[in-house]
Amino acid sequence: MKRRQFVQTLGAGSAVAGLGLLGGCASTGGSSAKVVVIGGGYAGATAAKYVRMFSDYQIDVTLIEPSAMFVSCPISNLVVGGHKTMADITTPYDNLSKRHGVRLVRDRVDSIDATKRTVKLAGGAELPYDRLIVSPGIDFLNDIPGLNKPGAQDKVLHAWKAGPQTAALRAQLEAMPDGGVFAMTIPLAPYRCPPGPYERACMAASYFKQAKPRSKVVIFDANDDITSKKGLFMKAWDEHYKGMIDYRPKHKVVDVDVATNTLKFEFNDDFKAAVLNVIPNQSAGSIAVKTGLATANNRWCEVDFLTFESKAQKNIHVLGDAIQVAPLMPKSGHMANQHGKTCAAAVVSLLQGKEPPALPIYANTCYSFVTASDVVHVASVHRYDAEKKTMLTVPGSGGLSAQANALEGQYAMAWARNIWADTLA
């Protein structure tokens, strides 16, 4: 990909900003190199596409993903609220192969041999790699005993991985009687998508306001306070859902009685509700933990932010929600897309025997729907600090919405369409 094409692509895709990635992407050599990508989410799918593009389609790329379709976590709360359908947030992976020559393998990874540089699939096949990109998303810690019982997780849902549980949680709200209570739990940060639970509360309340006006949403937050966009969410709750959303901080759930739909807390009284939505504590996807890549509290993967190479294993790069993030860096879909491009540029450079780009700069925007049409956002710009060897926010950059409005709702949907195209088209 030529320099000017690269700049145009970045602008079109709401992606990595600035000149930091432009060095080291010229397409010379690398024709025999093999890159394997594990996980087809925002980071993995982006990385697979852009390794092909940045190498002028000279590097072989295989993407391993068990799902037939990409289902977006951003916008999925609108499905819970009844304002979008699953089809609206689902995109096939076909264009990665048809347009970009990415080999798609629908399977799960059983193990990684970092010494032999091979990936073994659950189906038995073994794939060699020169560079491995691991983008496994999140998995959940098994620290809520009641949810480990047979069938429990089919009744008490997290819906924190967009897909079947998203539709199932919507069905539970539809089946709930008017006057019933929908109780959500939020884990201690860090977790995927800081404002996501508060947006979900808004979407559930927007449905209740229309169809079940006597119902309520109770939010039990393990954190000391709202972790993102506090003032904007509180204003929305007061203006649109007064008396309908009950927010309770410092409530750490320790168990669930699935038979009675009862939450049990560390220091607070039990609470019974018609529908429970328990979002458990999270870690990097299990394959990363199993491979020894999760070096931060055995939960998150530490990386070199210039290349996203693992600090635990050479030639393995880790992206997206699985990493131990830099200061003020959210675990968001937009940020994962940035990781994918930064890593792709670095991997191409390294495979061509060049230094990776030295100054990655990227932006992040998180939109949150507070009604079916009104949206708020938080934005930030992050720049590599060579002295501290991490990403730091650029002073004076980013910011919050002044207030929720419908114009931002249009921006949010445009952002979604653009980033889905940038990742998958």
Keywords:
425 residues, 25 strands, four-stranded parallel sheet, disordered N terminus, 11 helices, alpha/beta
Termini Cα gap = 16 Å
Q: How large is the count of helical segments? A: 11
Mean pLDDT: 93
Structural class: alpha/beta
Shape: globular
Instruction: Estimate percent helicity.
Output: 25-40%
Biggest sheet architecture: 5 strands, parallel
Radius of gyration: 21 Å
Going across the biggest sheet, name each strand in turn.
Answer: 5-2-1-9-21
How many β strands by DSSP? 25
| Unreliable stretches covering 5 or more consecutive residues | 1-15, 17-30
Task: Give the strand content.
Answer: 15-25%
Mind explaining what this structure looks like?
With 425 residues, the chain is an alpha/beta fold. It has 11 helices and 25 strands. A 5-stranded parallel β-sheet has the order 5-2-1-9-21, with helices on one face. The protein has a 4-stranded parallel β-sheet with strand order 13-12-11-17, with helices on one face. Strand 19 and strand 20 (309-310) form a beta hairpin. Mean pLDDT is 93; it is low at 1-15 and 17-30.
SSE layout and pairings?
Layout: H1 3-12, E1 34-38, H2 42-54, E2 60-64, E3 69-71, H3 76-80, E4 90-92, H4 94-98, E5 103-105, E6 109-113, E7 118-121, E8 126-128, E9 131-134, E10 138-140, H5 152-155, H6 164-175, E11 181-186, H7 196-211, E12 216-221, H8 230-240, E13 245-248, E14 253-257, E15 262-265, E16 271-272, E17 275-278, E18 282-284, H9 286-290, E19 303-304, E20 309-310, E21 316-318, H10 333-351, E22 361-369, E23 375-385, E24 390-393, E25 399-400, H11 406-424
Parallel strand pairs: 1-2, 1-9, 2-5, 9-21, 11-12, 11-17, 12-13
Antiparallel strand pairs: 3-4, 6-7, 7-8, 10-18, 14-15, 15-16, 19-20, 22-23, 23-24, 23-25
